[in-house]
Design goal:
- This protein is α/β, with parallel strands linked by helices.
- It has 2 domains: about 210 residues, Medium-chain alcohol dehydrogenases, catalytic domain (Quinone Oxidoreductase, Chain A, domain 1), CATH 3.90.180.10; about 150 residues, NAD(P)-binding Rossmann-like Domain (Rossmann fold, 3-Layer(aba) Sandwich), CATH 3.40.50.
- About 20% of the residues lie in helices and about 25% in strands.
- The strands form 4 sheets. Strands 3, 4, 5, 6, 7, 16 and 17 form a 7-stranded mixed β-sheet that branches.
- Strand 8, helix 4 and strand 9 form a beta-alpha-beta unit.
- It is globular and about 65 Å long.
- The relative contact order is 0.15.
Length: about 375
């Protein structure tokens, strides 16, 4: 009889349940991971509430754990290695399984080595949002990457490029600021990073490399950014909701530029300043498989996949200053109690399937339990 495991799977009535399912077997160039920790992303909740494809598929994108078994052709990993990775858990019509289960499968060149100084809980926060940030900066915005990349772009024409990270205290925003802080112009100058966030996060973002941080609730933040920066050259809109992209476009230099957005819809296209171009891309393209997603078929992209491999190798190598850590800091972790069975009742409630701007912010909006306070500047993590 085939071995069995517990996994969180898409169920009828727009929910997910823990079910007894078969343990997957690694195919050629694949590794099986004994999952230790999983991190939550909004897409996990969204496509459980609005399922695509068949029911019964394992949900979940971000995992970390230990290599449990290797498939034929695997040369990069051994049983017992600590890894993290990204799976496309039931987020498209394409039937690819996720990682919220006791065991999961990764392609060997898309697994991330977890350095000794990084916990499994921290490592689980990295794969999806760090790759999204890298794609935004080093593919869509065409900024030369600080690591060997499948994409080669000319350096900026100006010697002090400016980058705006909107909603920088989000998981994506934190990684975007960190990656942008590694950038240097051909003359060796740092890129100038500007950010928006709630005041309670300003000190952290300044410490991560932002030159200045602005309260997005301030009626003068656009004018304040323009005054401080002289005009923005590049921007990443880390929520891409309602008027956010249009407002960001007003901070740009006169010649315009590009904004990386993280949603294909949900943000107002009217009001985007002429000469400023919003650019969307699905992080899943980085896995290199054809997708049926957002009512369209996205062909497999070898170049996006090659970029993912290069970026994950960059992370795996560790920091030049301390090889026991990643070159960028993992997100702050809120370790949630319970395991797979509590994800739907607790984490999905906190993350919601609605826009970030519509999330309740009252401390007791979801009850008085400490772990159910509104999410801000941290990643929800469960141990399996």
């Amino acid at each position: 009889m085939a071995a069995r495991m517990q996994g969180l799977v898409i169920a009828p009535n727009k929910t997910a349940v823990v079910a007894d399912i078969a343990v997957p077997e690694p195919a050629h160039n694949e590794i099986r991971v004994k999952v230790h920790s999983v991190a939550l992303n909004m897409v996990d909740a969204l496509y459980t509430q609005y399922p695509l494809g068949e029911l019964g598929r394992v949900v979940g994108s971000d995992i970390s754990g230990v290599v449990d078994k290797i498939g034929a052709g695997v040369t990069e990993w051994r049983v017992g290695d600590r890894v993290a990775g990204l799976l496309q858990g039931a987020t498209s019509v394409t039937p690819r399984p996720g990682g919220f289960a006791e065991y999961a499968i990764l392609e060997q060149d898309l697994a991330i080595h977890v350095p000794a100084g990084v916990s499994f809980d921290e490592a689980a926060t990295v794969p999806l949002c760090a790759l999204t940030a890298a794609q935004a900066l080093f593919i869509r915005l065409e900024i030369p990457a600080p690591f060997p990349s499948a994409y080669t772009f000319a350096p900026p024409a100006i010697d002090a490029p400016t980058i705006l990270v909107y909603s920088a205290a989000t998981s994506l925003g934190l990684y975007t600021v960190e990656l942008a802080s590694l950038l240097r112009t051909p003359s060796g100058k740092s890129y100038r990073i500007f950010a928006t966030a709630s005041p309670k996060h300003h000190a952290k973002l300044l410490a991560l490399g932002a030159e200045a941080v602005f309260d997005y609730r301030s009626p003068t933040w656009v004018e304040d950014v323009r005054k401080a920066s002289g005009g923005i050259s590049y921007a990443v809109d880390c929520i891409s909701e309602n008027e956010s992209t249009a407002v960001i476009s007003q901070t740009f230099v006169e010649s315009g530029g590009k904004i990386a957005v993280i949603r294909s819809t949900g943000w107002d296209k009217e009001g985007v300043r002429e000469g400023v171009t919003p650019l969307y891309g699905a992080v899943w393209q980085g896995l290199g498989h054809e997708l049926i997603y957002n009512n369209a078929t996205l062909p497999a992209s070898p170049s996006w996949r090659a970029f993912s491999v290069a970026f994950y190798k960059f992370l795996s190598a560790g920091s030049a200053k301390d090889s026991s850590r990643f070159p960028i800091s993992p997100n702050p972790v809120r370790l949630m109690p319970g395991g797979l069975a509590e994800i739907v009742s607790d984490a999905f409630v906190l993350i919601g399937t609605f826009k970030v701007v519509d999330r309740p912010v009252e401390a007791t909006a979801h009850g008085d339990k400490e772990w159910m306070k509104p999410v801000s500047g941290e990643k929800l993590v469960y141990r399996v």
